[in-house]
UniProtKB/TrEMBL annotation:
Keywords carried by this UniProt record: Membrane, Transmembrane, Transmembrane helix
Listed transmembrane segments: 23-45, 65-90, 102-123, 138-158, 195-214, 220-239
Protein name: DUF1648 domain-containing protein
Source species taxonomy: Bacteria, Bacillati, Actinomycetota, Actinomycetes, Micrococcales
Organism: Nesterenkonia alkaliphila
C-alpha cells in the first residue's frame, strides 16, 4: 500500500467518541476523589497519635509508624494507577466495551484507594494514650462497596456505541442464501479440557490458601476478598455465539456480558486464529487487544480458530469459536442483505 493510501485510511478513521466523558471519568473524577481523601486526612492530623497503626494482626497491631508512611504508600500506588488508567482513557475507547472497562476501573480504583486510606486513618482518630485502634475492616468493606458502585456508575455513563452503518461492499466469502431464506448459526465455546484441569488445580489451591489465611488472621474481610473473583470467573466461563439477521451476538451463558455487532455495521468477517491468548490479548475472557487496544475486542476463551469481524469506525471483534469460517460466511451474507435492504448496495 502506498503512503498516500495509508494516509487516506488513517484520515478516514473517525475520532474516538465521547472525549468529554473519557476526560471526566477517566481523569478528573479519579484525581478529585484522591485529592479530597488526602485533604481530609490532612484535616485529621491534629486528632491522630504521633505513631499510627500500619498493620494489624489477628489480635493486635503488628506495626506502628508515621501517618505519612501509611498515606504515602497508598498515595503513590494510587497516583501511579490513576496516571496509567487516565492515559488509557484519553487514548482508547473506540468501542463502548473498552470505554466502560477503562472508565469503570479508573473511577472505581480511585474510590477504592481513597476508601482504604480513610478507613485506615479514621479508626485511629481521638484515641486515648496507649489505646489500640480497631482493625479497619468494616470501613474497608464500605470502601469496596463504594468503589464497585462508583465504577458501575462511570461504566454506565461511558456512552453507547454510536450508530455507524457501513457504506462499502462486504469483504470476504458469503454463504449462498435464497432471497427469502433464513439461516442462523449458533455455537457455544468453553475452555479446553487441559485449561480446565490446570484452572481447577489453581482455583483449589487459591481457595484453600486464602481460606487458611482468613482463618489464621480471623479476618472476614479477607474471606470476602477471596470469594469476590468467583462470580466473575463463572460469568466468563463459557460463551454462546450467534449469527442471524441482526448480526453477531456473543454473550456469556449467564446472559451478561454481551457483545453485539449489527449486521449493517459489518464491513467483513473472516476465519482467523488466536495463537497465544496471553501474548495477543493479555489473557483469557473478554479482553482488549494488546496490539490494537483502541478498538479491538476479543472474546478469548481458548487458543485456536476465531471469527474475526471488521466493524465500521475502525473497530474489530475477535471471538475464538469452532467452525468460524461458516459463521463468517453467514455473517457476510447477512451484512450484504442488510445493505440491500437499506439501499446501500
Amino acid at each position: 500500500m502506498s503512503a498516500d493510501a495509508t494516509s487516506d485510511t488513517v484520515q478516514s478513521r473517525p475520532p474516538i467518541p465521547y472525549r468529554g466523558r473519557r476526560v471526566t471519568w477517566g481523569a478528573v473524577v479519579p484525581v478529585a476523589v484522591l485529592a479530597s481523601a488526602f485533604l481530609l486526612v490532612l484535616s485529621w492530623l491534629p486528632r491522630l497519635p504521633e505513631e499510627v497503626a500500619l498493620q494489624w494482626g489477628p489480635q493486635d497491631v503488628n506495626r506502628y509508624g508515621s501517618v505519612w508512611e501509611l498515606v504515602g504508600v497508598l498515595g503513590a500506588v494510587a497516583a501511579l494507577s490513576v496516571s496509567v488508567l487516565a492515559g488509557f482513557a484519553l487514548c482508547t475507547g473506540r468501542t463502548a466495551f473498552i470505554r466502560r472497562m477503562v472508565l469503570g476501573l479508573a473511577t472505581g480504583q480511585a474510590v477504592l484507594f481513597a476508601g482504604l486510606m480513610l478507613a485506615s486513618v479514621a479508626v485511629q482518630l481521638d484515641l486515648a494514650p496507649g489505646e489500640v485502634p480497631d482493625a479497619p475492616e468494616l470501613g474497608m468493606l464500605i470502601g469496596l462497596a463504594a468503589a464497585l458502585a462508583a465504577g458501575a456508575l462511570a461504566a454506565g455513563l461511558a456512552g453507547k456505541d454510536p450508530r455507524m452503518p457501513a457504506t462499502g461492499p462486504v469483504t470476504g466469502a458469503q454463504a449462498e442464501l435464497a432471497p427469502d431464506e433464513r439461516a442462523v448459526w449458533v455455537k457455544t465455546v468453553s475452555p479446553s479440557r487441559r485449561f480446565l484441569a490446570w484452572f481447577t488445580v489453581i482455583a483449589v489451591l487459591y481457595l484453600v490458601s486464602m481460606g487458611a489465611l482468613a482463618w489464621s488472621v480471623q479476618s472476614w474481610f479477607t474471606l470476602v476478598l477471596t470469594l469476590l473473583p468467583v462470580p466473575l470467573v463463572l460469568v466468563l466461563y463459557a460463551w454462546r455465539v450467534r449469527v442471524d439477521s441482526r448480526g453477531l451476538t456473543a454473550a456469556s451463558v449467564m446472559g451478561w456480558p454481551k457483545l453485539h455487532v449489527p449486521a449493517d455495521e459489518v464491513e467483513g468477517a473472516q476465519l482467523g486464529e488466536v495463537k497465544s491468548p496471553m501474548g495477543e490479548f493479555g489473557g483469557w475472557g473478554i479482553r482488549s487487544s494488546l496490539q490494537h487496544p483502541a478498538g479491538t475486542i476479543g472474546v478469548v476463551i481458548r487458543a485456536g480458530e476465531a471469527l474475526e469481524v471488521a466493524r465500521s469506525g475502525g473497530r474489530k471483534i475477535v471471538v475464538t469459536v469452532d467452525d468460524a469460517a461458516t459463521g463468517a460466511a453467514l455473517l457476510n451474507a447477512k451484512a450484504h442483505r442488510a445493505r440491500q435492504s437499506s439501499g446501500v448496495e
